[in-house]
């Protein structure tokens, strides 16, 4: 996490760091690349809620004009991750618990059907790949590599959707998951959290392999409810990260 007053130019890869060159974004899809970079930093909490972002500084840091930066910021505003006051300022948005709950509802609905279909497949040879991802997560857990763990977690759930041909739906949910993902990332370092996620992933794969639809769906419900069940605890520890709205029961 960073100071809210730290300029974005110092956060760019290679910018303001001894012995490193300025990062230059490729001209092709510059807006998409900047969007992805900024989104990752917001979701990972490297850019905390309330962090000021300067379009001019981002443009300078990545060696592009302000047009793709403006487009990237507009997309992030649409996703609820930035607050933009025209001709004034742009800040990283606070975490909106109500938005997180809506997204969680969508994701739960999707994954319950996904694991039902996977459990009913006659050929479940794909389980070996899921187990390999879980094994890599285990190594990330042992080394407390939270970045690698997060990436593998996303890959695990994306692969579940891909295996039943609905990867595009996973993409749609991911695009609106900024608030729930920030909640998870605040929760991730808590004692036992990584092991709890690992346990759910292992049990889910075993249930799918066994063709046990009910157990697979029960594990999904348990797995996806964990962070929201801790939201008041997370809010008490990080009150400045949250929008001033009531947490749901």
How would you describe what is shown here?
The protein is mostly helical and 249 residues long. The chain folds into two domains: 8-92, Arc Repressor Mutant, subunit A, CATH 1.10.10; 97-241, Four Helix Bundle (Hemerythrin (Met), subunit A) (Up-down Bundle), CATH 1.20.120. It is built from eleven helices and two strands, in the order αααββαααααααα. The chain has helices at residues 30-43, 55-62, 66-78, 97-120, 127-142, 146-163, 167-175, 178-187, 193-209, 213-229, 231-237, and strands at residues 82-85, 89-92. It has a two-stranded antiparallel ribbon. A hairpin with a 3-residue loop joins strand 1 and strand 2 (89-92). The longest helix has 24 residues, at 97-120. Residues 1-22 and 245-249 have low confidence and may be disordered.
Count the domains.
2
Tally of separate helices: 11
Averaged pLDDT = 88
- Main β-sheet description: 2 strands, antiparallel
Number of strand segments: 2
Round the Cα radius of gyration to an integer and report it: 19 Å
Distance between the termini: 28 Å
What's the short version?
The chain has 249 residues and is mostly helical. It is 61% helix and 3% strand.
Topology:
Blueprint: H1 30-43, H2 55-62, H3 66-78, E1 82-85, E2 89-92, H4 97-120, H5 127-142, H6 146-163, H7 167-175, H8 178-187, H9 193-209, H10 213-229, H11 231-237
Antiparallel strand pairs: 1-2
